Amino acid sequence: MLKVGILGGGQLGRMLLQTAANYPVETHVLENDDECPAAHLCRYFIKGNIRDYETVYHFGKGLDAVTIEIENVNLEALERLEAEGVKVFPKPSVLRIIKNKVRQKEYYLEHGIPTAEFAIITNKNEIGQLPHLLPAVQKLAEGGYDGRGVQVIDNLSDSHLFFDEHSVLEKKIKIKKEIAQIVAVDQLGKTALYPPVEMMFNKDLNQLDFQLCPADIPQQVLWKVEAIALTVVRNFNSPGLFAVELFVDENNEVFVNETAPRVHNSGHHTIEAHYSSQFDMLWRIILGYPLGNTKYLFPSIMVNIIGGEGHSGKAKYIGLNEVLKIDNAFVHIYGKAETRPGRKMGHVTIISNEKQDLIHKANKIRQTINVVS
Amino acid sequence: MLKVGILGGGQLGRMLLQTAANYPVETHVLENDDECPAAHLCRYFIKGNIRDYETVYHFGKGLDAVTIEIENVNLEALERLEAEGVKVFPKPSVLRIIKNKVRQKEYYLEHGIPTAEFAIITNKNEIGQLPHLLPAVQKLAEGGYDGRGVQVIDNLSDSHLFFDEHSVLEKKIKIKKEIAQIVAVDQLGKTALYPPVEMMFNKDLNQLDFQLCPADIPQQVLWKVEAIALTVVRNFNSPGLFAVELFVDENNEVFVNETAPRVHNSGHHTIEAHYSSQFDMLWRIILGYPLGNTKYLFPSIMVNIIGGEGHSGKAKYIGLNEVLKIDNAFVHIYGKAETRPGRKMGHVTIISNEKQDLIHKANKIRQTINVVS
């Protein structure tokens, strides 16, 4: 039985472990918090810092393979483990590209992958010399995570707010649609694509409302999305599961935004709506099994369950009973003891052949469920 | 967060725990073997004998609820726990009826539930006075499990083999079909029925080959199956999940064979083929949520993966890669370290709108996969 370690113990780890129980595999998890969502669903839980070299090295040493559920892990330890024969999904060389936003942009450029026009800057004074990129998005090269380290610059008047560090200044695209394309790559380099999903935003709150699968895009846009995502992933030369986030502009041009080299929020619907879920697929890749079937059984919408504003502390789920009455909805609560505003506490997937039914139920769920303390 | 205990740590416990991770619940498992399939998927694992009074009592004391994945548990401890306010699914009064095959038969008789004609005997000499029941099935009142304690008596010539104990002598029915009907009962007594499944036997080997869902039976037989199963379950006056096994004879008459008051082998296909699986449904019942949707997404067949004849020891799965190539198959390996002839080591569910595709794939899987040591 192969021994496989996961760096990180959040909800992605939790769902990986729910699926791991379908296969002969010995699971190990490394995470600082021994009440994290993945702590009690694995064979061996090791409490420790996934960013610490010695901790990650000793965790991985003796395992057959290691994967991640978050990018922010100790890369040097993974490189040493790989050199010593532990399989790492994705390869550390991919993480090195993706962890640094400057390096990631350069990678897209090197491989002719369309991405928003940008400049690399080292201090905020350079922004004044790049008026043609405004309005722009400024992204710190390192250390940004979950919305931090990213800001919009509309004009030069708020210059005291600009990041004064190594960063990417990226021209804002007039986005018509945001798409995520999940690509699986097995150990022989064989690939499989899921149908892309479409992010549906609440325009007033600038908040992700739902993810619709399959994305409602014309055939030509689908081809571009698939071709671009494949180009991104193939040049990594690494097995693993990858979520490529893309923008479609008003001219139906497609640009890569960024790539996550792991299971991803945009693939949660695959648990119930597809033959092989993204979690099932990653186990198939790691364990050397054939790739799974990426087709959907039904179109779906996924709604995140988010910690309510103004509530921090022990989580309570208001409206859960009402949501559980919905005939075609599947509820996932991640088992986080504490809620915080904006924290991902769970998700609901709805499946239906009727798009209007999906959107109607998704709206109902958003209005019904509330995580409070 | 409710604290819920499971007595038994086999594959049913494992699949219960895979699903429990979708809900806010603190899980506890009691089982003698700390490498059992459910040992590493729960919050608290307690090593101990589920048939021992003190062990079961101390396991359950302090929990909000207890359920079972096997009937052969200490009943007196559950009765005391129930008296002290722990919710037990199913109620111990149901287990008392079901654990004893004589009592179970009497229960069917008391409630006018059709079941094969029978006599209760206390020694083997009585069989000679009951020629009208032959050919018959003799079932020990207590202690039978998984095929043990049950035998067919065709005539009186093999009398030295008859059980000389308290047992049921049941006239053999000319079976056209074997059906299982799963019924869910919530804490308010509300019920939900899954579509019944049909057991498909290999006539040569007298071995269960597949389970087909929905069963291929005429509407009138379906109505009888549902009505009889509901009568069986309603008179238990207990919340829980119940699998009622029934025979359909050549005249389309329907008879109850026996009832399992728990999640059951005949409901495995519900994981992928139905909105709410039997495991999801039991959690909904225990946690006081609304009952789930029992409808199927697709017709399905379930194939058990059984330990091969002549193989005892560390399990190896021959042909697993081939099975994982099948586009519409879902594989579950139970994580049992050791295989034995006939041991349930896993299962595969196939979903399809085409019955012939289901049967074709099921045959292919049976021919392909082999558990050896």
TrEMBL record, chains A, B:
<feature type="domain" description="ATP-grasp">
    <location>
        <begin position="105"/>
        <end position="287"/>
    </location>
</feature>
<dbReference type="InterPro" id="IPR011761">
    <property type="entry name" value="ATP-grasp"/>
</dbReference>
<dbReference type="GO" id="GO:0046872">
    <property type="term" value="F:metal ion binding"/>
</dbReference>
<keyword id="KW-0067">ATP-binding</keyword>
<dbReference type="GO" id="GO:0004638">
    <property type="term" value="F:phosphoribosylaminoimidazole carboxylase activity"/>
</dbReference>
<dbReference type="InterPro" id="IPR003135">
    <property type="entry name" value="ATP-grasp_carboxylate-amine"/>
</dbReference>
<feature type="binding site">
    <location>
        <position position="139"/>
    </location>
    <ligand>
        <name>ATP</name>
    </ligand>
</feature>
<dbReference type="GO" id="GO:0006189">
    <property type="term" value="P:'de novo' IMP biosynthetic process"/>
</dbReference>
<dbReference type="InterPro" id="IPR054350">
    <property type="entry name" value="PurT/PurK_preATP-grasp"/>
</dbReference>
<comment type="function">
    <text>Catalyzes the ATP-dependent conversion of 5-aminoimidazole ribonucleotide (AIR) and HCO(3)(-) to N5-carboxyaminoimidazole ribonucleotide (N5-CAIR).</text>
</comment>
<feature type="binding site">
    <location>
        <begin position="257"/>
        <end position="258"/>
    </location>
    <ligand>
        <name>ATP</name>
    </ligand>
</feature>
<dbReference type="Pfam" id="PF17769">
    <property type="entry name" value="PurK_C"/>
</dbReference>
<dbReference type="InterPro" id="IPR016185">
    <property type="entry name" value="PreATP-grasp_dom_sf"/>
</dbReference>
<comment type="function">
    <text>Catalyzes the ATP-dependent conversion of 5-aminoimidazole ribonucleotide (AIR) and HCO(3)- to N5-carboxyaminoimidazole ribonucleotide (N5-CAIR).</text>
</comment>
<dbReference type="InterPro" id="IPR040686">
    <property type="entry name" value="PurK_C"/>
</dbReference>
<dbReference type="Pfam" id="PF02222">
    <property type="entry name" value="ATP-grasp"/>
</dbReference>
<keyword id="KW-0547">Nucleotide-binding</keyword>
<keyword id="KW-0658">Purine biosynthesis</keyword>
<feature type="binding site">
    <location>
        <position position="178"/>
    </location>
    <ligand>
        <name>ATP</name>
    </ligand>
</feature>
<feature type="binding site">
    <location>
        <position position="101"/>
    </location>
    <ligand>
        <name>ATP</name>
    </ligand>
</feature>
<comment type="similarity">
    <text>Belongs to the PurK/PurT family.</text>
</comment>
<protein>
    <recommendedName>
        <fullName>N5-carboxyaminoimidazole ribonucleotide synthase</fullName>
        <ecNumber>6.3.4.18</ecNumber>
    </recommendedName>
</protein>
<comment type="subunit">
    <text>Homodimer.</text>
</comment>
<dbReference type="InterPro" id="IPR013815">
    <property type="entry name" value="ATP_grasp_subdomain_1"/>
</dbReference>
<dbReference type="Pfam" id="PF22660">
    <property type="entry name" value="RS_preATP-grasp-like"/>
</dbReference>
<comment type="pathway">
    <text>Purine metabolism; IMP biosynthesis via de novo pathway; 5-amino-1-(5-phospho-D-ribosyl)imidazole-4-carboxylate from 5-amino-1-(5-phospho-D-ribosyl)imidazole (N5-CAIR route): step 1/2.</text>
</comment>
<dbReference type="InterPro" id="IPR011054">
    <property type="entry name" value="Rudment_hybrid_motif"/>
</dbReference>
<dbReference type="InterPro" id="IPR005875">
    <property type="entry name" value="PurK"/>
</dbReference>
<keyword id="KW-0436">Ligase</keyword>
<feature type="binding site">
    <location>
        <begin position="170"/>
        <end position="173"/>
    </location>
    <ligand>
        <name>ATP</name>
    </ligand>
</feature>
<dbReference type="GO" id="GO:0005524">
    <property type="term" value="F:ATP binding"/>
</dbReference>
<dbReference type="GO" id="GO:0034028">
    <property type="term" value="F:5-(carboxyamino)imidazole ribonucleotide synthase activity"/>
</dbReference>
